[in-house]
Amino acid sequence: MIVNIREFLETCGLDEEQFYPGKKIVKKLPQPGEHKSHCIVYDWRNPDIIRIEVKAGLTGRNLSPKDLKKYPVSFQSPTYIELRVSEAQAKAN
């Protein structure tokens, strides 16, 4: 699947000035109630791959198993997608 990075950033509520190769952004998604808040980590520190991960908590860090077990199962297992960045495709568009 080919994804236009500019459109992707707009859809995520990010813009090109905020997110660029070498950058990591944590977007907090607080929810009412205990152990329901989570965040989306946009990681483009590797210039060839954009990794988008849903994590329990609001820090963007991995929680200890003791803390993680309090969150819903959907936040306890790794939930991410990796997009490979290709200049050839970018130049074609």
Which key terms come to mind for this protein?
alpha+beta; 28% strand; 93 residues; single chain; 23% helix; 4 helices
Summarize the structure.
This protein is of the alpha+beta class.
Using DSSP, what is the number of strands?
4
Computed structural class: alpha+beta
Radius of gyration: 15 Å
Task: Give the uncertain stretches in residue-range form.
Answer: none
Q: What's the arrangement of strands in the largest beta sheet?
A: 1-2-3-4
Q: Specify the number of helices.
A: 4
Average residue-wise pLDDT: 86
Termini distance?
A: 14 Å
The percentage of residues in β strands lies in: 25-35%
* SSE pattern, N- to C-terminal: HEEEHHEH
Helix content: 10-25%
Strand count, sense and barrel status of the largest sheet are:
4 strands, antiparallel
Shape estimate:
elongated
Give a structural overview.
The protein is an alpha+beta fold and 93 residues long. Helix content is 23%, strand content 28%. The chain has helices at residues 5-11, 65-68, 73-76, 87-92, and strands spanning 24-29, 38-43, 49-56, 79-84. A hairpin with an 8-residue loop joins strand 1 (24-29) and strand 2 (38-43). The protein starts with a helix and ends with a helix. The model has no long low-confidence stretch (mean pLDDT 86).
